[in-house]
């Protein structure tokens, strides 16, 4: 399991380059001094005082670590390697995925052909099925959080479980989380979150992979939210003229307002667009 090491982080790893940064976390590429192995280290700034709004609470950090521990062992989910703590940060050492973001891959090609897109979406569905089977929802599925293991290969890994949480069946979790253009109507309306919330986001990612455009994005946040709650999207002929009926049906089964009617991950894996010929 994960060793919560008392050895100072700096004694074990050399810090190489910064890979990315968010509001309260910085991700750096690090190298184990003994083995030469490279990892991604996520430095999470700890909240100093209860009344502060800066930094992340211990409870939220422990939740992310607990989720990472629980989901280990699936080839489409990034592996947790170790956890360290300093006075100011908790450092989560993670498997390094060096193929770049799926987002960049799509941008480089403007949009993907259906066979390639379906192959990526199938892997995302396999990772999501793993999470949902453990009653965990990701809550921030978007192209930036889907990364290629190696450049030029099509093996993807889901990363960044900073917003993920365990949702026991029947439990009610409400929270305004996620990235506006990917959130489901229940998030906008502050209604209970569920695995279906992830499935909506899979629909948005699929739409983007096939068209390069974002289905609900408006000129501002309010317009985006209004498009989402009214499920206002369309398959513009410009991008979807040559898209198969199966692909459009796959997306339409996910852009469903009623969470009980929305396709589950199992139904998506059985869909003709994913099962293929
Ligand atoms: C080569 C590279 C470049 C940027 C990276 C990563 C790897 C990366 C990684 C992770 C996270 C949470 C964020 C990461 N970022 C930040 C941007 C992610 N959307 C991670 O868990 N493993 C990574 O390799």
Number of helical stretches of at least 4 residues? 11
Instruction: Describe the sheet with the most strands.
Output: 5 strands, antiparallel
Number of strands: 9
Secondary structure class reads alpha+beta
Termini Cα gap: 41 Å
Report the portion of residues in β strands.
15-25%
Tell me the series of helices and strands, N- to C-terminal: HEEEHEEHHEEEEHHHHHHH
- Bound small-molecule species: the ligand Cc1ccc2c(c1)c1c3c(c(C)cc1n2CCCN)C(=O)NC3=O
* Sheet with most strands: strand arrangement: 1-2-3-5-4
Regions with little confidence, pLDDT below 50 for 5+ residues: none
> What percentage of residues falls in helices of 4 or more residues?
25-40%
Mean pLDDT: 92
Radius of gyration over alpha carbons?
19 Å
Q: What is the 3D form?
A: globular
Name its key features.
277 residues; alpha+beta; five-stranded antiparallel beta sheet; two-stranded antiparallel sheet; 11 helices; 9 strands; binds ligand BD4
Topology overview:
Elements (H helix, E strand, L loop, with lengths): L8 H4 E9 L3 E8 L5 E8 L12 H13 L9 E6 L3 E7 L6 H8 L4 H20 L2 E2 L8 E3 L7 E3 L6 E2 L18 H4 L6 H17 L9 H9 L7 H4 L4 H8 L12 H6 L1 H4 L2
Antiparallel strand pairs: 1-2, 2-3, 3-5, 4-5, 6-9, 7-8
Helix pairs in contact: 4-6
Bound molecules: ligand BD4.
Q: Could you describe the 3D structure shown?
A:
The protein contains eleven helices and nine strands. By secondary structure, it is of the alpha+beta class. It has a five-stranded antiparallel sheet with strand order 1-2-3-5-4. α4 (114-133) packs antiparallel against α6. The mean pLDDT is 92. Ligand BD4 binds at residues 19-20, 27, 40, 42, 78, 94-98, 101, 144-145, 159-160.
């Amino acid at each position: 399991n994960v060793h919560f090491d008392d050895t100072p982080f700096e004694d074990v790893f050399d810090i190489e380059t910064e890979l990315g940064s968010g509001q309260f976390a910085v991700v750096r590429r690090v190298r184990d001094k003994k083995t030469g192995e490279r990892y991604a280290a996520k430095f999470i700034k700890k909240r100093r005082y209860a009344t502060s709004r800066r930094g992340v609470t211990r409870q939220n950090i422990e939740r992310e670590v607990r989720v990472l521990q629980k989901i280990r062992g699936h080839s489409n989910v990034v592996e947790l390697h170790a956890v360290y703590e300093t006075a100011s940060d908790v450092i989560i050492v993670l498997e390094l995925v060096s193929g770049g973001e799926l987002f960049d891959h799509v941008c480089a090609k403007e949009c993907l052909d259906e066979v390639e897109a379906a192959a990526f979406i199938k892997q995302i569905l396999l990772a999501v099925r793993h999470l949902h089977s453990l009653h965990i929802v990701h809550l921030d599925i978007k192209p930036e959080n889907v990364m290629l293991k190696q450049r030029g290969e099509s093996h993807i890994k889901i990363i960044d479980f900073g917003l993920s949480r365990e949702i026991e069946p029947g439990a009610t979790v409400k929270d305004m989380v996620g990235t506006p253009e990917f959130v489901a109507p229940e998030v906008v309306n502050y209604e209970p979150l569920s695995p279906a919330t992830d499935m909506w986001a899979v629909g948005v990612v699929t739409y983007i992979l096939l068209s390069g455009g974002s289905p609900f994005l408006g000129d501002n946040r309010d317009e985006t939210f209004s498009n989402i709650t009214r499920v206002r999207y369309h398959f513009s002929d410009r991008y979807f003229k040559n898209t198969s009926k199966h692909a459009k049906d796959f997306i339409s089964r996910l852009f469903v307002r009623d969470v009980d009617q929305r396709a589950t991950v199992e139904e998506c894996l059985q869909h003709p667009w994913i099962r293929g010929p």
